[in-house]
Amino acid sequence: MSVIQACNVTKQYKIDNITINALSDINLEIEAGEFVAIKGPSGSGKSTLLHLLGCVDRPSSGDIFINHKNTSNLSAGELVRLRLMQIGFVFQQFYLLPALTAFENVELPMREAWLPKKERKKLTLDLLDSMGLVDRAKHMPSQLSGGEQQRVAIARALANNPAIIVADEPTGELDSANGERILEIFESINQKSGQTILVVSHDEYVTSRAHRIIHLKDGRIVE
Asked: CB 122: neighbour CB atoms within 10 A?
């Protein structure tokens, strides 16, 4: 059963009077429980496609379905709710809120989903523990290493138990040892929880860990 489907998707940007075709005629399906990588050279449209599939941005034309729901028909508020509950995001730059502790960063999506305080506390500590970071719960992001920050970001992405995890160059800021640990975490999430993992990377070692690779070139799927 597909959890993500793109049908005839295009994305265009206008700069001055010039139209740039970032993506053209994208058709794909991602099944529940897959670990999929999107690969391509710089400027091929990888991150643009990820943002569309993650419902961060809307296509210029075509339709994107999340769990068979056409996101083109959703309001901005409905898209926010969909992202909050069904899609977890992990980025190269971590994007932890600097004024919040590791615990508070992970807890934040649960607060936005109105989970009870007692439940939030238990789930947050469980997630940090699963990342080997329960002893860092009160640390600020500036007090954490890059690898620790990325593990906090993954824990945050898992906060509301989303069906889909999307990651944009998740190992790009990390050394090889920490990068390997992050990949092992993604594999564990995929295998144990059955959550769908969608990763964008130009790193062949990262993409080789996926079950399937989608190759992009000049805004089109080529393989």
From this structure: 12
